[in-house]
Amino acid sequence: MSARALGHTAQHPMRVLAIESSCDESAVAVLDESRGLLAHELWSQIDLHRIYGGVVPELASRDHVKRLLPLVRTALEAAATRADQLHGVAYTAGPGLTGALLTGAALASALAYGWRLPAIGIHHLEGHLLAPLLETPAPGFPHLALLVSGGHTMLIEARALGDYRLLGETRDDAAGEAFDKSAKLLGLPYPGGPQLAALAAAGRENAIRLPRPMLDRPGYEFSFSGLKTAVLLAARAQPLDDQRRADIARAVQDAIVDVLCTKALRALEATGHTSLVVAGGVGANQALRARLREAVAARGAQVYFPRSEFCTDNAAMIAMAGLLRLRAGERGGLNLAVRARWPLDELRPPTDQENP
Ligand code: KG4
Ligand code: ZN
Asked: Which of the residues 39, 76, 143, 166 has the least number of beta carbons within 10 Å of its own beta carbon?
């Protein structure tokens, strides 16, 4: 993390502990304003949910309860940090699965109460948006952001911390969901996105061509639900041997990458921004990264990605959001308010009013 990411070199650097538990990853991180990321621990529940083909909310909550406190201990140890060296406890307050969110919120609030620290509830998507600030060089504000996760596909104008204007989003399935559902149709295990990407590497370009929904429409809306049907038909057309499965995987990836890249470039052009931030699980996709790197560079603009492990859910990004909000004067209370649904544009920049 660069000093620029945090806006200054602090004389009394702040340090936060952060907890992420919005879905099927239990994660804890410790981030220091001047020394950067001191620890990040993650326990993935993928094995727990795989046999059900998707996340089972009640199982997710129960597992978070088991994993989070040991992860806090491990993270503090790895960061060589005592509670009295911390300045706040950040946690994901939404959007996500209510029960899962509550496990992190309850633990964060209990720790904050016991340690006499502020607890700061973070918007999960703001975490994703700020993940590139963990890298060097870090993007500054304002910039354009392409947020592509399992639940969201958005183009956003990020003007400042907490000031995000939605330019367009998906009307139906998210990009990650399109990867996952297509993968399922090809018989790949949950969560299919990374598996489909791996299979696509053996696929041939243009062996099969799938539709690019909404590509020709003006604006920044997306639609990926039609891809499933196209994949289903392509998978039925003839015996599904290994090469055809790989060709279909390649076609799915190419279609999704093409739409995301074209619309992001269109938004860069229309807004005049010179920086594009890519965030969320699908941002880990190598084909998307390569295509965006090339296209954005050709425009003379910059593209910023978090490292792949910080594209998917993690606590380092929640720590980054927590640290920036804490530094800006935000102090959360100890009420256990989580929000399963929480529109990003309801977020506000932090103000000192919360800290009279
Ligand atoms: O951001 P994330 O970890 O969780 C949400 O907040 O949704 O995103 C998870 C999504 C899943 O749909 C997963 O399949 C997809 O990101 N994903 C990928 C890749 N890695 C994760 N999709 C395509 N290629 C990848 N390499
Ligand atoms: Zn996420």
From this structure: 166
